[in-house]
TrEMBL record:
SUPFAM superfamilies, per the entry: S-adenosyl-L-methionine-dependent methyltransferases
Annotated PANTHER family: METHYLTRANSFERASE, TRNA U34 CARBOXYMETHYLTRANSFERASE
Name of this protein: tRNA U34 carboxymethyltransferase
Gene Ontology molecular function: methyltransferase activity; transferase activity, transferring alkyl or aryl (other than methyl) groups
Keyword Methyltransferase attached: yes
Annotated source species: Muribacter muris
Keywords: Methyltransferase, Transferase, tRNA processing
E.C. numbers: 2.5.1.-
Binding site for carboxy-S-adenosyl-L-methionine: K89, W103, K108, G128, D150, P151, T152, I179, E180, M194, Y198, R313
Reaction equation(s) it catalyzes: carboxy-S-adenosyl-L-methionine + 5-hydroxyuridine(34) in tRNA = 5-carboxymethoxyuridine(34) in tRNA + S-adenosyl-L-homocysteine + H(+)
This protein's encoding gene: cmoB
Length: 320
């Protein structure tokens, strides 16, 4: 099973030390109600080799050896990593194994990065981090510590697998909780929430929870689905959106700016808008499920299969 003690030791003398008042008990409770496959997934992480790698996190997430793995070794590594499918956010380049994930998360990172305050030396929270791809890119930008939170056990095991293959790098850590379970720490220099807001039944509560984790003057990076429209336009899907059941509110950019200002954020600005393309989200050998092509109207890709506007995403930056 995953051992969180090194993380506790890591934060004991950091601005996150107050988290130790609640976190160990929360994770003990979490361990009692994990997914039935969690033990199997955690065992995969144990089986992975510990290799002394040359690591590149600056323009990709990559680990390589001076002497490449043999074909047999690479096949065994591929076999183990495929036990952790589906791989949704990536890609990862690990000892000659290319984990070609459903999402080209590097596309999103390339859109976001130019607009960020420098991450060098920062303590960062990544909310809804998935398997942690963007966390490693934050480390590559010089972050002092990156903490990701995501309650999905499979994502935790995928993250730990990648971490082990990246020389067990401790600059990034994934904690299997939701932000609603975090006490207000006011300790992070930058907080990312990417691809989360539309899954929240109460989006204003989510924005307040993000603000409660930031130091005064800290930076929020919010990426979410949006629609075209004015300050009063918000899409509330009646049942599903792009086959997703848990999509509640998709605002226009002006409405989203209004929400952020309403909960107390300052200097709110939209820095990017982009329609999700079939090159960014697609089926691969590392995903057995449906993907974007299956979520769109087959005769009109400007609409979802339900008739709503096709996925369009915006990046907003604000200060606490």
């Amino acid at each position: 099973m995953i051992d969180f003690c090194p993380f506790y030791q890591q934060i004991a003398t950091s601005p996150l030390a107050a988290w130790l008042e609640t976190l160990p008990l929360q994770l003990k409770q979490w361990e009692k109600q994990t997914h039935g496959d969690y033990a199997k997934w955690a065992k995969v992480v144990e089986f992975l080799p510990q290799l002394a790698a040359e690591v590149n996190l600056t323009d990709k997430v990559e680990a390589r050896l001076a002497e490449p793995l043999s074909d047999g070794e690479r096949q065994r590594l591929t076999y183990h990593l495929k036990q952790l499918m589906p791989w949704r956010k990536g890609p990862y380049h690990l000892y000659g194994v290319h984990i070609d994930c459903e999402w080209r998360s590097d596309f999103k990172w390339d859109r976001v990065l130019p607009h960020l305050s420098p991450l060098n030396g920062r303590t960062i929270l990544d909310v809804g981090c998935g398997s942690g791809y963007h966390m490693w890119r934050m480390v590559g930008e010089g972050a002092k510590m990156v903490v990701g939170i995501d309650p999905t056990e499979l994502f935790l095991c995928q993250f730990e697998a990648v971490r082990k293959l990246l020389n067990n790098d401790r600059r990034a850590n994934l904690i299997p909780l939701g932000i609603e379970q975090m006490q207000p720490l006011h300790a992070f220099d930058t907080v990312f929430s990417m691809g989360v807001l539309y899954h929240r039944k109460s989006p204003l509560d989510h924005l307040s929870q993000l603000k409660n984790q930031l130091v005064k003057g800290g930076e929020l990076v919010l990426e979410t689905l949006v629609i075209d429209g004015d300050v009063n336009d918000v899409l509330v899907p009646s049942d599903r959106y792009a086959k997703m059941k848990n999509v509640y509110f998709i605002p226009s950019v002006p409405a989203l700016i209004n929400w952020l200002e309403k909960v107390g954020f300052k200097n709110v600005r939209c820095v990017d808008e982009a329609v999700t393309t079939l090159a960014e989200q697609r089926k691969t050998d590392w995903l057995e499920n449906e993907s974007l092509i299956d979520f769109l109207d087959p005769t009109d890709h400007s609409k979802t299969i339900e008739g709503y506007p096709a996925p369009k995403r915006a990046v907003l930056i604000a200060n606490s």
